[in-house]
Hints:
Pfam families: Amino_oxidase. By secondary structure, this protein is of the alpha+beta class. It is 28% helix and 20% strand.
Amino acid sequence: MGISNAFQCFHYYYWKCFIRYSSGIKITEKKDFNNLKIFEAEPRIGGRIHSVKFGNAFVDVGAAFCHGEKDNIVYSLVKDINVLRHSQFQISVYKSNGEFLDDAEHEKIEEFSNSISNSNNPSDECATATSVEECLGIKTNNLIKTLENDEEKYKIIEMIRVATAKASSYNSALDLHDLALRSLFKLCSGDFYMNWNGQGYKTILNVLMEKFPNPNQSLPIDDKFNLHKKIKTIKWDNQERPSVITVDGETHEADHIIFTPFLGVLKANHLELFDPDLPEDKVDAINKMGYGAIMKIFLLFPEKWWPNNAFIKTIWKHNDEETLRKKNLEWLISLMGVTTAENNPKVLIAWYLGKYLPIIETFSDEKVLRGQSYVLDKLFSRHFNVSQPHQILRTKWLNNPNFLGTYSYESVVENPNRTIYQEKLERPLTNKNNKPTILFAGEATHPYYFSIVH
């Protein structure tokens, strides 16, 4: 129940003026505002940006990649200081029995996955579907009708599982029945997977504070932060000057309050956070937007045993799924795949998605580590000399009360007028003089770049 990503929001409004051009975003001038305070519920700044030293370099517990170049403020801020690297992943797919999926089969799976995201054509078989899960069901049934033997049908089911994982990983939805098939979301053109060369996404925070590349020119910002300060109440109700009351009882008035909560926090706590309650249209937006999570598990090994630049997707075969259930390991079905950690040769990242995430977060590190050892041996021991990880770092975004998830998506709701709920959430609250006093920011307030850092 705190303000997260507060620094980025403050920086946007107070220190720089961002002007859009057709070629991108240009930073024009400093404004030299100093009379301000920044409250952060966590003991660190950054919100969903959280870089942690693990192994030989930093790993990103939260946001990891700079997605695209054109009209991407993150890219615009760092493109000239040589911090981003293209992620040269070598993508491969392994089945749970250790079989390697050949390129032709992988291409079929990719075509099927892409057909889900391209189902906006009125003549498409999913024209009447509203959710990704519904479209998956329609396409699956239509394909299976053309097949006669069970082996071919199981191959189709395997395709569905990869498509499901892909949709979940991009959108964070725990249940694809809730993920809208058609979305306003946009991608920035250009390189979609740029990494931070082992220095972590925290680099952008240092760029914003001008601590990087020259720390001697940093902004006088550090004394503005109030870390580990949760907000209990925001009082606004047409008052000339709104105020925030912290959990420890302090009251702070201001001309303007820029609030960057995670959507999950608003869903759970908006009735307690605001005095008086938020306007009905803003509550409607909070309730009708989707919000979910993904999970990353970082594994440190004594030695590297996997190929360079590996991005290995996983497919569970039907009989292996049954074995997992008998062993009480069905949560491992949520594994989408593993990737190498940039500039960190002994670290693998396991990506988990979907309905089991709330359960996995409750497990002990020892239980999760045993599961990882089992699944890595199951998938890769036929091809590699698999060793066992000896250290683990994992995310718990759903159970952190300052986040309650990771990022937003467009939910399946009745919306005949195509209301853009992100714009409703972004709309400021005003006082009796119509002066904006409570301003909202964060990924869930952008009409088409929601879920992405920029």
